[in-house]
Fold this protein.
Amino acid sequence: MSMKPDVETERGFRDILGEEAERMDRLVDSARKTFKAYDYRPIILPIVEPAELFVRSVGGTTDIVEKEMFFVTDGHEDTGARESCLRPEGTASAVRAYIKNGLHMSNPIQRLYYTGPMFRNERPQKGRYRQFHQIGAEMFGVGNVRADVEVIAMLWAFLRSVADGARLRLVVNSLGCPVCRPNFTRELLGFLQAQRDALCEDCRRRLASNPMRVLDCKNEGCRKVLIDAPNLTTFWCDPCRAKVDGLNGGLEELKITPTWNNWLVRGLDYYTRTVFEVAAEDGLGSQNAVAAGGRYDGLVEALGGPSTPALGFAIGVERLAMLVSPRESPQTPRLYIGATSDAMRTQASDLAERLRRHFAESPKPVRIRLDLEDRKFRRQLDEAQSLGCEYTVILGDEEMKNGRVIVRDMKASKQEEVLKDDLVPHLMKRLGI
Ligand code: HAM
């Protein structure tokens, strides 16, 4: 019997490689660039967190916490210590870090972004994985609705810059605040209780835990009941209404047109007032939310910090990558360094190192290859050709004695001698850098 090593991944976990990995990598790079223009700073957060953190923030009766958490044990005897989990999202961790590191004391206004894997034990399907990746941004310390406008504008600018061809819809809602929301939930609960029998089993359970969640149930029976449900907008208090106007006005100034949907409630409990979601109109099937976020003005305080308004969003990188077309030409090395004799091999390595260092900082990084297998010069040129390199810098004993190298245009099969000292500017011109 052959002993085949088991190389399967766990269900819902996958290797991401090739073109898809390049696309996701590029998205993270572009997000960093966009977010830095808005003065966001990186924060690197743990992947394992106390489970209690998410119970207290996302909410103990939400699907994410109740059904989808991956618990972690350290393999030792259960000592009754608190449970750890793989983080299902990044907001709670960012808030925890804000409090733990006393960021509010150095400056209550903080703009932070993070990228990395999140874990939810959901039923896998297209665009839904148990390990997926988010790019998230959180702004702490500004309650003014201008912050909502800027955060949404940053998300929109980024999505437009990377997925320009995609049809995206920005859906927004205001969930009200601790002053006006309880009036709405009371009214809604009364209404739903009277219709209890027409609701699905999940929603009947939600009546006790979180009646607002019934609003975005996909079940047809529930949807029918909801047609006559009380309308959230009529319950907004004056300050909430003013924020809604401010948000609409600010977005309009930036030529961003949201769709209001008063049934958008989100599956996490920490939100107050503004919530939003960006959905792809086509290409993603049922899992079409590419990004989502909102305000969570009560969360910092609820987790033990000072009262601090905050808001943010997270983008699903796998989903966004599905909307971004692959690069027309795959990433190939552009430059090859060839050695015509064994004596030239060390010089070729030196030159490759020097050029790589030089071009690493350029806006269009250049991939550079050279032979590592002691191939004859002819075979090196064949390799350069098959890799698709545009130019080969050829080091020959005679030319080097005269302080020169040969630059060969691989497509045109033409070559010319260049002074070693002029090589960098010469290549920059040729490569269009
Ligand atoms: P969320 O809506 O749970 O919000 O997730 C944000 C995005 O992550 C979704 O819109 C989707 O693109 C992606 N996503 C979620 N679950 C999966 C999955 N199983 N597979 C693939 N992609 C997925 C949050 O996580 C909040 N922390 C967002 C936030 C930040 N709110 C304020 N600040």
